[in-house]
Write a structure and sequence with these properties.
- The complex is a heterodimer of chains A (406) and B (343).
- Chain A is mostly helical.
- Chain A has helices at 6-20, 22-25, 43-66, 74-90, 95-117, 122-141, 145-148, 201-222, 224-234, 236-241, 246-271, 282-295, 302-315, 322-328, 334-344, 352-366, 370-383, and strands at 154-155, 178-179, 182-183, 187-192, 195-200, 274-275.
- Chain A has 17 helices and six strands.
- In chain A, the strands form three sheets. A two-stranded antiparallel ribbon of chain A has the order 1-6. In chain A, strands 2-3 form a two-stranded antiparallel sheet. A two-stranded antiparallel ribbon of chain A has the order 4-5.
- By secondary structure, chain B is mainly alpha-helical.
- Chain B has one domain (2-329).
- Helices cover 68% and strands 7% of the residues of chain B.
- In chain B, the strands form two sheets. A two-stranded antiparallel sheet of chain B has the order 1-2. In chain B, strands 3-4 form a two-stranded antiparallel ribbon.
- The radius of gyration of chain B is 23 Å and the shape is globular.
- Classes of the chains: A mainly alpha (406), B mainly alpha (343).
- Chain A binds chain B through residues 67, 69, 116, 119-124, 126-128, 130-132, 134-135, 138-139, 141-144, 236, 282-283, 286, 289, 293, 346, 351, 353-354, 356-358, 360-361, 364-365, 368, and chain B through 35, 122, 125, 129-133, 135-137, 139-144, 146-148, 150-151, 267, 271, 274-275, 278, 282, 312-313, 316-317, 320-321, 323-324, 327-328, 331, 341, 343.
Amino acid sequence: MLGLNKKDFSLLLIVALLTMLAPFILNPFPEGSELAQFNAGYPDLMQRFVIFGIFAIGFNILFGLTGYLSFGHAAFLGVGSYAGVWMMKLLTMNVIPAILVSVIVAGLFSILIGYISLRRSGIYFSILTLAFAQMSFALAYSVLTPLTGGETGLQLSLNDPRIIGTSVTESGSIPVTHLFGLEMRDSFELEMGAWLFTFNAGYYVCAVVLLVAFYIAIRIFRSPFGMMLRAVKSNQQRMKYTGLNPKPYTLAAFVISGMYAGLAGGLMVSMDPLAGAERMFWTASGEVVLMTILGGAGTLIGPILGAGMIKYMENILSKINSTILHEWFAFMPDGIEDLLVTLVYPFIGKGWHLTLGIIFMLVVIFLPGGLVEGGQRIARLFRRKKEEPKGPDPEHHPKPAPHVAE
Amino acid sequence: MDAIILQILNGLDKGSAYALIALGLTLIFGTLGVVNFAHGALFMLGAFCAVTLNGILTISHTVIDETRTDFLGNPLKVEVPYIYDIFGETLGASIIDWSVPLAILFAIPVMILIGVIMERGLIKFFYKRPHADQILVTFGLAIVLQEIIKYFYGANPIPTPAPEAFIGSFDFGQLIGFDANTIIYPYWRLVYFGFAMIIITGVFAFLQFTTFGMVVRAGMADRETVQLLGINIDKRFTLMFGLAAAVAGLAGVMYTPINSPNYHMGMDFLVLSFVVVVVGGMGSLPGAVLAGFLLGILESFASMGAVIDLIPGINQVIIYLVAIVILLTRPRGLMGRKGVMEE
C-alpha cells in the first residue's frame, strides 16, 4: 500500500491511529479525579507532541542515517518560525502559505549552513553547526531586531499590512490563524460520563502534517537514497572507493532535515503566532538530540516516542509538587511518608530535568538503540522460545569449489 | 593606545577562564581520547566548592550578648560563626574573608576525587564507543550534575566576594606611564590572570619535567608501546583526568568573585570552550591556551564601542565567526597535530 511494504504500512497505520485518537488516549483519567493531572490530552500539549515529533523525525534523517551529529538544528526551527510569522504579518492569516514559506526559508538557510559545515565531519561538524546556530541566536537577539523583534520576539500587531484578509477584525483585535476559515483554536469538546475529550482543529492540522512527514521519512528510509545515507554512516572511505561522492547525499539529508525543522517551526507559529530567539538557543538543539537518542536514533518511530516522552515529562511531571506527593504516600506511616517524599521529590516537579538526564544517560549507556531497542529486547524475551536456531544460511556458505589442480 | 591596552586587559580574565577549561578538555582528549561535554559542569562544581566552603566557614550558633540589647530591651542575640570560637575573632573573620582563595585547597582534592570517580565509574566504558556516544553520555552527565547543584543551591546566583584586600580597582595606566583614569582595572581580575598563568605553567612543567609527566606524554604519543614497556598507563590517565577536573575546578573557584556562580554557568562556558579547543587544535595543549587568550581578547576588542558602530552585533558573534573561518581554512586548528580526530 502507498508503496510501502506490509510492516511499514502497519507502522504508518499505528502512528495514524495514535495521532488521530490522541485526545482519547492521552486522557485516560476522568475529569476531576486525582489522576487527572496526568492527562495530557489538552490541545496545547498535544500540538507540542506532534510538532516536536516532526522536528525529531527530521533530525533523525540526518543523525540516524548519516551519523552526523548536528548541535545547531534549532536554528532552522527558529528561522522557520520567523518566516512563518512574517507571512502572517504580510500576506494572510491562512496557515498554508506560512508553513510553506517556513519550509522553503529553512531549506535555503540549511543549504547555506550545510554546505559550509559539511566540509568537516565528526566533532568539527558538531562544533560548526553549534557555532552557526549560536551566531543566528545572537544576531536574532541583537542586530536583526527589526526582523526578529529581538528580546520580545516577533509577534503580530494591529497595524500589520496584511494583503489578503484584514489587519484588524471587526471587534478590534488581531485576527487568528486559520486554514481556509477553520480557526486553529477551534475546539470541540466531547463529554462522556466523567471524561472530557477535547478535539482541537489546530491539533488535527498538525497531526495530518505529521503523518505526511512520517510517510515521507519512511519512503526516504527505504529508498536507494536512504541506503546511500547509511553508507555515509558506515564507511565513507569505502563509499568513495566505489566511485560515489558522499557529499551531495549528506547535504541533501542535511537540507531535508532542515526543512523538517522549518516545517515544525511553521506549525508552531501557526498554532501560536509568536516567534522568539530562544527557540534557536543551543539548549533547544540539545533537546532534539535528546529526543532522538532517547527514542532511538536511526529507527522510524523512535524520534516520535522520544519527543512525546520528553514533552510529557516537561509538562506533566514538572507540575507535581510536594503536596501532591504527600497525598500519594498518605497511606504510609508518617515517618516513611516523609522519607519517601524526600527521596522522590528531587526527581519530580522542578527537578524533572534530573530525571531526564538520568534516563538519558542510562539509555546511552545500556540501550544505544533507545526506547525502541528496549521494546524490541522485551519483545524478544517473550518470543525467544518460538525461534529455533537457524542453520547456516546456504547463500552465505557456498559449497567449496572443487579443486581444479592438485 | 591606552584603549587597546585596556581591551587586552579586559580580555585576559575571560581568556584565562577559556584557556584553563580548554586546557583541561585537551588534557582529557589527548590522553583518553574522550570528548568531554561534562567539562563545563566540572568548572561549575569548582565554583560551588568555593560556595560550599564559604557556607561551612560561616556556620554559626546563637550567642546571647548581655551587654547589648535589641529594640525591645531584651539581650541581643548574635550569630557567631564557630570559626570565631576556634581561632578567635580577628583570625576567624579574616579566614572567612579569604574563603575564596582558601577554597583552592579545598577544591583540589574534591575535584580530583570527582574526576577519578567520573573516569572509573562512567567514562571508562566509553573508550571503544564512537565519539558521538561519548558526547551524548557526558552531555547527559552534565545535565545531571547541573540539576543536582540546582537542587541543593537553588537557581539563583550566589554572590561570593573576593577578599577585602582585592576588592576595588587600581589605576593600571598610571603605573605604566599613561594619564590617570585611562586604564582602570579591578584587582581580582589581575589575580585571576596571574593564577591562571601559574596553573598553566604548573601543568606544563608537570608534564615536561616529571617522570610521571614524561610517561603521560609518551602515552599520548603511543599508548600501546608504553603498555608494552610494562607501564600501567590506564592508571596514569585516570589521574590525568582527575588533574584536568581539578584545573577546571580551580578555574571555577577563582571565577566566583568575577561572576556569581549559578548552576548553568558551566554550560555557558562549555560551548565557548569547545570552540576554543577546536580553534586551538584538537589535542594540542599550547594551542588550547593560546586560543583561549586569543579569543578572550578578540571578544573584548569586538565589544569596543567603535568596533560595534562599524560592524553592529560583532561582539556577539566574533568567537563563532573566528571558529568558522579557522575550521574552514586551517582544519587542524591553530596548532593541531596531524592525525588527531581526522576521519
